What we know:
By secondary structure, the chain is of the alpha+beta class. It folds into 2 domains: about 1-265, no CATH class; about 280-325 and about 350-455, Cytochrome Bc1 Complex, Chain D, domain 2 (Orthogonal Bundle), CATH 1.10.760. Helices cover about 35% and strands about 10% of the residues. The chain has 19 helices and 13 strands. A 3-stranded antiparallel sheet has the order 12-11-13, with no helix packed on it. A two-stranded antiparallel sheet has the order 1-2. A two-stranded antiparallel sheet has the order 3-4. Strand 11 and strand 12 form a beta hairpin. The longest helix has 14 residues, at about 140-155. The radius of gyration is 21 Å and the shape is globular. Mean pLDDT is about 90; it is low at about 1-30.
Amino acid sequence: MRNGLLTLLMTVFVAGIPAALANGPGATANEQPPSPERGYRILREQPFLPADFTTETFDQLWAVWPEPLRSRARDASPAQRRRMAFSRYGLMEPPDSPGLGAALGYVETPKGWVMNCLACHGGKVAGQVIPGLPNSHFAMQTLVEDVRKVKLLQLKPLSHLDIAAATIPLSTTNGTTNSVVFGIVLGALRRPDMSVDRKGRVPKLRHHDMDAPPFWNVRKKTRLYIDGMAPKTHRPLVQFMLLPSNDRETVLGWEEEFRDILAWIESVEPPEYPGHVDRELAARGRIVFEKHCSECHGTYGEDETYPERMVPIDVVGTDSLRLTALSPAHRQWMKDGWMSRFGEDEVWTNPDGYVAPPLDGIWASAPYFHNGSVPTLWHVLNSDERPSVWKRTEDGYDHDRLGLEVTEFDDIPEGAQRPDERRRYFDTRRPGKSAAGHTFPDRLSADQKRSLLEYLKTL
């Protein structure tokens, strides 16, 4: 049992780094001030973890694809196959080097591709790749399963992720990950001072998928994560690098790099809405927003405010599994240890709900809610119309409803029998995936909702 959980631990680092990250304590006299430019370069160039697979292995993945995809790949050129692979696994071409080398979110090394936080936090909206945007396409589970098949066929050794994916779910729906559980297991095998404790007791796990939030909201926050439990410093970022192979000295030696990474995260700007905005309608929507929404989500414009308000779970009514999956013991671990400077930075050990996020760039960050269960802002405003099951297109954008271009279903189609195909459908009936709650907009009229949607384009 412990070996399986240790492997899960290895998985965590791949999940991507939690989105709510920001600058920690200021640099000392002997340190350089945090640099956003260095932070982005570190993410693109510096590996913190073991390699997942080589370029050779990646370029052979098509050989284990289902038909007719495999035959199409066989007859395609190498460049076309690479594009097909990126599409299948939800990987992004780096905007600074499209068509060259590893995907955004991976560092290419002599030993292979090494994943980092941009795998989950470097996505695209309407076909445009934006570092810092949630990657709502990422098919982590499918990628790792295919990599394992090819390695076994080639008699190559398996990596930590290859083994971990056979033990615990990395994700059950494309675009989401079991990231909270990754952090729990990694933390269980560390003492408060970050030394490795291979005899650490891993608690009972409640698996659930999370949607990666946008990095550009971090600058407004003083706390991290949807439940606000953690202090906003660079140190909680490190927990997703806590594989036992990274010893205490290695982890503590990364502080400057993580300060730079967090400086970049706080520098990320939300993208402007690219379509038409009816300014008169949006002005009416602003009035609706400030009357009905700003108490939790703040105000926008010249005199912006953000209350960072905790909304109790019995008030917001969204899926509660994320809140209850973290045990008091794990929260106390963070409070007692290096992650919070041994208690100098406040850790909430008993949060009772979720923190309402800022809404900057909200048009671009679909799907919505912490679990990614709601495909468009129109569905957020119309709780009775939220689909039980939905499937998105790859690059389409719904400008009428503001969000993903989706097909809605009452159930997963009978033809979707393979696990990789079922993961393309978001099923809100599964544990941790409910689209219920946040029914506050139900009190608005149809005209108010229409004007509010127009205003949300402008944030």
